[in-house]
Specification:
Layout lengths: L4 H10 L8 E10 L1 H11 L2 E2 L5 H9 L7 E8 L6 E4 L24 E8 L2 E7 L5 E7 L2 E9 L1 H11 L2 E2 L8 H4 L7 E10 L1 E3 L24 E5 L6 E4 L5 E8 L1 E8 L1 H11 L2 E2 L5 H11 L6 E9 L4 E4 L21 E6 L6 E5 L4 E6 L2
Parallel strand pairs: 7-10, 17-21
Antiparallel strand pairs: 1-14, 2-14, 3-11, 3-12, 4-10, 5-6, 5-10, 7-8, 7-9, 12-13, 15-21, 16-21, 17-18, 17-19, 19-20
């Protein structure tokens, strides 16, 4: 009996019992300063915990040690850092803006963004104090919801994450033609734009923040450090870095190999020294892998993605079928000598490259 190859690979994916988390958290119930905790994590694991999205937060909370009420994570406020603009929704990069003339003007420590909806022809952005109460715009599954209740920016963010997905973030979600039937005229409306001087210990550029609602964004370059408070639903607070607390480390289950090899050489290297070439099953894993990819010394980075021309199907070397995809728009036609790589720069899209090309590559450790 002939077996449909697509159903075959779906069967393999659905019945795979081994789930490899690309990183995992470890709770250390020893009281240390933030710097001591950072040193401990770097020596025994990878680094202090980095949190990239709400899925990370839920996983962090689900595995928490019952007797720990608060613990250091890897976020700290630089004493000499410049405030950087971010979008609240994880994975949306801030690379273009639609500021009104004279904005952002930072008149009174203004770290949050809003749309100034004067008329149908002018929906420019401005900056404002995050403690001001404004209407706000949430986003969920390509749909925008205007909320006619006034909240601070943090309250608005919390509401959108609980009821929808997040505050509307990025130019694609804030296109003029999609806003004209949503926004009221002559109202300032919060969007998911904010800036701060907080950075992650491992150098990640993740913009995700989960502050409690009393956090004071007007104090920047404070030199303080962040902790997660389990008695407050895991929301983050800031404290003096010299205070001693338990802490959370993480282990990175992938590694960037900065050597140029063909795809088959990379596959053999990973299986000899680690586990396999990396597999990406969802958007969260895509974001984690692209954090590693940005440090590559080649224009593309091999992944464990290969084209089987006899079956006419792309598949992961772990025998998983493609569920999540992130292809760039290409004119290349699939052929028998192609494998998948990720762009080192830009949006880190996937591309099809000949297996004889030599690039850096990422191995998974589990």
């Amino acid at each position: 009996m002939l077996i449909n190859p697509v159903f075959f690979y779906l069967f393999l994916a659905q019945h795979c019992l081994i789930v490899c988390q690309l990183y995992e958290y470890h709770y250390i119930n020893e009281e240390k300063t933030w710097t001591e905790a950072q040193q401990y994590c770097r020596e025994k694991h990878t680094d202090l915990a980095t949190v990239s999205n709400m899925a990370d937060m839920k996983r962090l909370l689900s595995n928490s040690a019952g007797n720990i009420t608060e613990a250091w994570i890897g976020l700290y406020d630089q004493t000499d850092g410049n405030r950087t603009w971010y979008w609240s929704l994880p994975g949306v990069e801030f690379n273009e803006a639609n500021w009104n003339t004279g904005e952002p003007n930072d008149q009174q420590t203004e770290n949050c963004g809003f749309i100034e909806n004067i008329n149908d022809m002018s929906r420019k952005w401005g900056d404002i104090s995050c403690n001001r109460e404004l209407f706000f715009l949430c986003y969920k599954s390509k749909k925008k919801t205007f909320l006619s209740q006034e909240k601070t920016w943090l309250e608005a963010q919390s509401y959108c994450r609980e009821k929808h997905t997040d505050l509307s973030s990025g130019l694609d979600q804030l296109k003029d033609d999609q806003l004209k039937n949503v926004l009221p005229k002559n109202k300032n409306v919060y969007i998911g734009l904010f800036r701060d001087t907080w950075r992650w210990s491992d150098g990640s550029s993740f913009s995700f923040r989960h502050w409690n609602l009393t956090f004071n964004d007007e104090k920047y370059n404070s030199g303080q450090c962040a902790m997660t408070a389990f008695d407050d639903g895991g929301r983050w607070k800031n404290d003096n870095c010299t205070t001693k607390k338990p802490f959370i480390c993480y282990d990175d289950n992938m590694i960037l190999i900065q050597e140029n090899k063909t795809w088959e050489e990379a596959l053999r290297y990973c299986r000899t020294h680690y586990r396999d070439l990396v597999t990406i099953s969802n958007l969260d894993e895509q974001r984690s892998v692209q954090q590693e990819t940005q440090f590559a010394s080649s224009p593309f980075v091999w992944m464990g993605l290969h084209y089987a021309c006899t079956l006419d199907v792309w598949f992961w070397v772990t025998d998983e079928v493609l569920i999540f995809e992130n292809w760039a728009l290409e004119l290349k036609i699939d052929d028998c000598d192609m494998s998948g790589a990720m762009q080192q720069e830009g949006e880190h899209k996937w591309v099809k490259e000949n297996v004889s090309e030599k690039f850096n590559f990422i191995c998974s450790k589990c």
